[in-house]
Specification:
Layout (H helix, E strand, L loop, with lengths): L4 E4 L4 H12 L4 E5 L2 H15 L3 E5 L5 H14 L6 E4 L7 H6 L1 H29 L3 E5 L12 H21 L5 E7 L19 H13 L4 E4 L2 H11 L2 H4 L5
Parallel strand pairs: 1-2, 1-4, 2-3, 4-5, 5-6, 6-7
This protein binds NADP nicotinamide-adenine-dinucleotide phosphate (NAP).
NADP nicotinamide-adenine-dinucleotide phosphate (NAP) binds next to helix 1.
Length: 247
C-alpha cells in the first residue's frame, strides 16, 4: 500500500494543484494549511473525487511550536512513515512595505526560509530511519538574480536554494531526494493584481512539472522548463546593462 505524501500550504494555488494531481494518482494525502477549514475542504474534495485517504491538519508555519506539533501529528497519522513532503508556503509582499516594516520583513524570512528548514530537518530525520523518500520545496526564478522590484523575496528563495543544495548532499547516502522547483510567473493569489508582461503558467502546469521532477529525481526544475533558458540569459546580462533595467 502507498504511503502518504504531505503537502504543506495545500490551500495555495500551486499546493492545491499538486494535491489534486497526487490524489488522481491514488496517493494518500496529508494536507496542511494555516486555514484549517480550507485544508479540510480540499481533503474532502480529494477523497470524494479520487477515493483516496486524505487528512487535513491546521498549521501556521510562522510558529515554531506549531511546526513541532505538526510533525508529531504527521507521525500519528502515518505510523508507517510517509513517502515524502512538498512545501508550498510562501509570501511575496510589496517590497516598499517590507522596507518600511521590519517585523513584516522578519516574518517573510521566517515563512519563506526558516519554517522550511525547521520542517525539512525534522522530516529528514524521520525519513533517514528507513532511507528513501523525498523532500520538495518551491523556490522561484527570483532566486537566480537580484532584480530590483522583488529582490527581498528573491533573497529568501536563494537562501532556501543554497540550503537545499547542501541538504541534497547530506541526504544522498540515505537515498532521500531533495528537489527544488523554480516556477516563473504563475496565475495564483500571489500574483493577482500585479502588473506583469510575461505569460503566466497555470498552477496545474507547475504541479505537473513538480511531480515529474520528483519522479525523475531532478535536483532542480524550472517550471515551465523554458525558464531554465530565460534565467541563463538573465544571469548572463552584464552588470553595466543590468543596473539600468527596472524589472
Ligand atoms: N505565483 C507565482 O508566480 C510564484 C512564482 C514562483 C514561486 N512561487 C512560490 O510558490 C509557492 C506557492 O505560492 P502560490 O503561487 O500558490 O501562491 P498562494 O496561493 O498565495 O500560496 C501561498 C500559500 O502560503 C500559505 N501561507 C502563507 N502564510 C502562511 C503561514 N503563516 N503558515 C502556513 N501557510 C502559509 C498560504 O496560506 P493561505 O491559503 O491560508 O493564504 C497559501 O497556501 C510559494 O512558495 C511561492 O513563493 C509562486
Amino acid at each position: 500500500m502507498k504511503r502518504p505524501v504531505v503537502v504543506v500550504a495545500a490551500t495555495s494555488g500551486i499546493g492545491r494543484a499538486i494535491a489534486r494531481r497526487l490524489g488522481q494518482d491514488g496517493t494518500p494525502l496529508i494536507l496542511a494549511g494555516r486555514d484549517g477549514p480550507a485544508a479540510s475542504r480540499i481533503a474532502s474534495d480529494c477523497k470524494a473525487r479520487f477515493s483516496i485517504e486524505a487528512e487535513a491538519v491546521e498549521v501556521d508555519m510562522l510558529h515554531v511550536e506549531e511546526i513541532t506539533s505538526f510533525i508529531e501529528h504527521i507521525k500519528k497519522l502515518a505510523p508507517n512513515g510517509i513517502d515524502g513532503l512538498i512545501t508550498c508556503q510562501g509570501a511575496m509582499p510589496d517590497q516598499e512595505d517590507l522596507l518600511s516594516n521590519p517585523e513584516m520583513l522578519q516574518d517573510l524570512v521566517k515563512l519563506n526560509f526558516t519554517s522550511v528548514v525547521i520542517l525539512f530537518e525534522a522530516v529528514a530525520r524521520a525519513l533517514s530511519e528507513t532511507g528513501g523518500g523525498f523532500l520538495c520545496a518551491i523556490t522561484s526564478v527570483a532566486a537566480d538574480r537580484g532584480r530590483p522590484r522583488h529582490h527581498l523575496y528573491g533573497s529568501t528563495k536563494s537562501a532556501l536554494t543554497t540550503y537545499l543544495e547542501g541538504l541534497r548532499v547530506r541526504l544522498h547516502p540515505r537515498d532521500i531526494k531533495v528537489v527544488n522547483i523554480k516556477p516563473g510567473v504563475v496565475d495564483t493569489a500571489m500574483t493577482w493584481g500585479l502588473s506583469n508582461s510575461a505569460p503566466m503558467a497555470s498552477p496545474d502546469r507547475v504541479a505537473k512539472d513538480t511531480l515529474r521532477a520528483i519522479d525523475r529525481n531532478r535536483p532542480v526544475a524550472y517550471s515551465p522548463a523554458v525558464f531554465s533558458l530565460i534565467m541563463k540569459i538573465v544571469r548572463a546580462i552584464p552588470d553595466r546593462l543590468f543596473n539600468r533595467l527596472d524589472f
